[in-house]
Amino acid sequence: MSDVSFMERLLDGVEVEWRSLESIAHFQNAKPHEKFVSKDGDIALLTSKFVSTEGKSARWIHKADVLTPAFKNDVALVMSDLPNGRALARTFLVLEDDRYAANQRVCLLRVRDATAYSPKFLNYVMNRNRQLLAYDNGYDQTHLKKDWILKAEVPIPCPDNPKKSLEIQAEIVRILDAFTAMTAELTAELTAELTARKKQYNYYRDKLLSFEEGGVDWMPMGHPDVGEFIRGGGLQKKDFTENGVGCIHYGQIYTHYGTYADRTKTYVSEEFFKKARKAKTGDLVIATTSENDEDVCKAVAWLGKGEIAVSSDACIYRHKLNSKYVSYFFQTEQFQKQKRRHITGTKVRRVNADDLAKLLIPIPLPEEQSRIVAILDKFDALTHSITEGLPREIELRQKQYEYYRDLLLSFPKPETASAARA
Asked: How buried is 37 (Cβ within 10 angstroms: 0-12 exposed, 13-18 middle, 19+ buried)?
């Protein structure tokens, strides 16, 4: 049975009306609660991360500090995310009173009449709603405006018969609930496998780079016989060009690059490059700021031909060691342990170049560095295929779910969804 015929049978010839969300639900923006976050709080914050991870990343506050309470059957919707992020327009259905508070960048949608429109149905209709995702240009951080959200059109099957309408909505919700549970189970299995493989790889990498006491010399990375740290320049995303000279922006180190790279994702003009801070072949490019401690000082070894431009909030490590060896060392717990002592900042976490220069690195003979790199390259190739394949499989499962969800919600509509942007 095709999905179209299923919808036709489900609707059984009844009319489907499209109305603005504003006519279906109230909108409430949320206030910031960050200053109230407490380890022993009893109210979970509906943040963009909480919603996008389906409650797995919770922050807590005390009930007395709640500024924007969320009530049973409210639909929380994420209004802000990075370009091409997976949190934008994600939704979360509140199932209990006195359990949640909405945080800034998340709004609450409250159905005006639950005897005519199901909050569960609205949750599915608005989750990753294509009308809202159309505002993500893939370049700037997207902030959905209240008017954009309220102008989004939602379907009402059998609008003149609320009882029949709720029955149709409930049947679609039942099917999507079952499919959601199946997708979540498969995703959990794949995620567990991915986590296990990463732990195995980290264990062998740390073991190879753990030297017995007295076995090798440990020297400060900024020692004249080892290397020097050079701060990045004023490269910003607005300076990118379609072609030209390669560049690495610090934000790309988290999202795009691995242990090493021989080509860049983005470019700058020849004119800009002349005044930019440059990394040479063999240098490490290190992100010195992040929103979390784990990502601070993530590094990539530049192995491509010629120099590249490097942004601020990054630094260049020019050294006399095997480049891959140094990049692998930056991933070890030994490095992380030293790094943590020098992290500063609250919301933005950073380590400056002067402090990086103080960190110690083991320096075996060049041939031993090459041997370690050869082994780790094989591990990296093996785990890369796994860590590439499993997330891709997880993403495919999610896309498959979204495809069938959209089919189930593809009611007849006289106008295109783009009309909502007019």
From this structure: middle
